[in-house]
Write a structure and sequence with these properties.
The protein is α/β, with parallel strands linked by helices. It has 2 domains: 141 residues, Urease, subunit C, domain 1 (Roll); 260 residues, Metal-dependent hydrolases (TIM Barrel). It is built from 15 helices and 18 strands. The strands form 3 sheets. Strands 2, 3, 4, 6, 7, 15, 16, 17 and 18 form a 9-stranded mixed beta sheet that branches. Strand 9, helix 5 and strand 10 form a beta-alpha-beta unit. Bound molecules: 2-acetamido-2-deoxy-beta-D-glucopyranose (9 copies) and zinc ion (ZN). The site of one 2-acetamido-2-deoxy-beta-D-glucopyranose (NAG) has 3 residues, from loops. The site of zinc ion has 5 residues, from loops.
Length: 469
């Protein structure tokens, strides 16, 4: 601890300190490299030899470590010398309830996913409330461990009042910051659209939800293309409720699922106050892109999935395919970092997230700087994007509260118990899926004309006739 730190009285010069903030806990991350944000370029910038003070759920001050600063009473001081202090990461597309499927779909394709793992399969009857609860909770430990502090959940494990309620409970229990986008869907298990609307209204009034501010309700809907009463009900709901986000799967091309910006614009949903996040946007058109810019709305891209959804394009096609050799890299580490932090926050219209700045929420990730893979870094953004792994993440804070500390998750639950319950649930579910025949994939995909199933060329690492997989 440096001699220039003084505890015992309130930091002078912080006019915004409120009475409640006085009693709140404070934490000082002292003497490290802090990735902050340059307003002029809108890109990350590193402050070396700096400190960050958290008070309550927010960042109170970022200052040079050599500055003489008086700290609030009881401030806890965390030495971050040699470490990198980063804003928490923002994941704008996730389905946390599906954790029990882990490794089941290791060779899967999107077409197989639809018929086997998606929301319209037997999942709607097999997953019980406790499966959704423990799958979601155990599933959310992973992003928290990895420094993801905010998630937009496309919450389609809404199979009954009970699974929806359990889902929301798990999210609140996890301590992650989330836009919990309740999925409305036409299910075959008897949970009607009308009941979903009633269930949603109940959740909006949920006392636990309304007594905290990390988790907020949003809406997910994938059938905007259908001009029917359900779609009208969703449009009305978005217009009448002040929800945190609206999200939809938008693929296009041979996949259908054309919940495009153009479609949403026709329905008058792009120009309202609700942020709209289009996931994948694999076949986005120029007109769609212009609408997104005009209305300040965003897409969420999931690179590994995108490889299933769309032919490889971009770099290879644009340059090498034309026998041109680019002299620069198309994407910098700064750009990648911005996508994973600031851009995700803006997609949710939360400028108070994704950037470490005074007044913003204290969603903070601290990376070790001296592991075998990190040693030798000078640019902290490049170190995080190109060299770090989850094991380097020493501390994670969400809204000023510890979620990981000294390399260990901090949970409100007894993790041993959660793991046991989750494993029981996952074992039951995995057994059912392993015993279920794979979907038939003959003829046309999803009844779409001119979209045929074909066999993919497969990689074989074993010489000779090989083993197939
Ligand atoms: C901090 O306080 C010490 C002791 O009062 C003083 O020597 C030093 O110059 C101060 N540093 C700054 C940056 O004001
Ligand atoms: C992956 O495919 C191989 C070959 O078809 C099969 O033996 C294996 O069980 C599959 N794995 C999973 C998890 O489906
Ligand atoms: C689900 O909750 C809604 C709203 O409270 C209620 O109207 C409906 O009857 C419930 N359905 C079941 C099956 O309990
Ligand atoms: C759609 O709603 C209208 C009016 O709200 C109603 O008259 C009509 O029967 C509904 N259609 C269906 C298919 O539910
Ligand atoms: C909508 O919700 C946000 C976040 O909870 C709040 O800041 C805003 O004032 C609300 N707007 C309206 C019109 O209620
Ligand atoms: C959005 O645009 C539609 C026309 O496309 C218009 O009717 C509606 O009033 C606009 N809404 C807002 C909030 O500006
Ligand atoms: C404040 O500190 C107390 C005691 O150390 C702890 O139990 C509590 O969780 C802390 N609150 C926050 C918001 O971190
Ligand atoms: C957590 O649960 C396990 C298994 O039930 C139990 O053995 C252990 O004592 C519990 N730990 C705490 C800290 O309560
Ligand atoms: C390899 O494949 C060829 C042609 O399909 C077949 O004739 C041969 O028996 C196979 N060899 C082995 C070892 O399976
Ligand atoms: Zn998805």
């Amino acid at each position: 601890m440096s001699r220039s730190l003084r505890t015992g009285q309130i930091l002078v010069g912080l006019a915004s300190f409120s009475a409640t903030a006085l009693c709140a806990n404070s934490t000082l991350f002292h003497g490290g490299t802090i990735i902050t944000f340059d307003e002029a370029s809108q890109l990350p910038v590193a402050l070396h030899g700096s400190s960050l003070l958290v008070t309550g759920d927010s960042i109170a001050k970022i200052f040079e470590s050599s500055d003489n600063v008086t700290l609030p009473t009881g401030t806890e001081i965390i030495d971050v010398a040699g470490k990198i202090v980063s804003p928490g990461f923002i994941d704008t597309h996730r389905h946390s309830w599906q954790t029990a499927y882990k490794t089941l779909g290791s060779n899967t394709t999107l077409a197989e996913y639809f018929g086997r793992y998606g929301e319209f399969t037997q999942a709607g009857t097999v997953f019980r409330p406790e499966d959704i609860y423990y799958g979601t909770l155990a599933g959310l430990y992973e992003p928290l461990d990895a420094g993801v502090t905010t998630i937009l959940e496309h919450a389609h494990g809404t199979f009954s009042n009970e699974t929806s309620n359990a889902y929301l409970e798990a999210v609140i229990d996890s301590g992650v910051r989330m836009a919990f986008c309740y999925a409305f869907h036409e299910l075959s298990n008897g949970f009607s659209f009308e009941e979903q609307l009633a269930n949603f209204a109940d959740l909006m009034k949920n006392e636990r939800l309304n007594s905290q501010d990390l988790v907020q309700i949003g809406i997910a809907y994938d059938a905007f293309i259908q001009d029917n009463n359900n779609t009208r009900a969703i449009v009305n709901l978005v217009n009448s409720k002040n929800v945190s986000a609206l999200t939809m799967h938008f693929l296009g091309g041979p996949w259908g699922n054309t919940n495009s910006p153009s479609k949403l614009d026709q329905l008058g949903l792009l120009n309202g106050t609700t942020p709209v996040v289009f996931s994948h946007a694999s076949y986005v058109t120029t007109d769609d892109a212009e609408l997104l810019r005009k209305h300040d709305q965003y897409i969420s891209t999931t690179p590994e999935s995108e490889m299933h959804f769309k032919p490889a394009s971009g770099y290879r096609a644009l340059y090498l395919g034309n026998w041109n050799v680019p002299r620069n890299s198309p994407m910098s580490a700064n750009q990648a970092f911005t996508l994973a932090t600031r851009s995700g926050a803006l997609a949710l219209r939360r400028p108070d997230l994704g950037v470490l700045a005074t007044g913003n929420k204290a969603d903070i990730v601290v990376f070790d700087g001296d592991s075998p893979n990190m040693l030798g870094w000078s640019d902290p953004v490049a170190a995080v994007i190109l060299h770090s792994h989850v094991g380097d993440i020493r501390h994670v804070m969400v809204g000023g509260e510890w979620r990981k500390r000294d390399g260990q998750l901090v949970t409100k639950q007894n993790r041993t118990e959660v793991q046991t319950k989750f494993l029981d649930s996952a074992k039951r579910i995995q057994k059912i899926w392993l015993e279920t025949p794979l979907p038939e994939m003959d003829g046309e995909f999803n009844g779409m004309s001119n979209v045929d199933y074909v066999d993919a060329y497969t990689i074989d690492a074993v010489r000779g006739n090989g083993t197939g997989y």
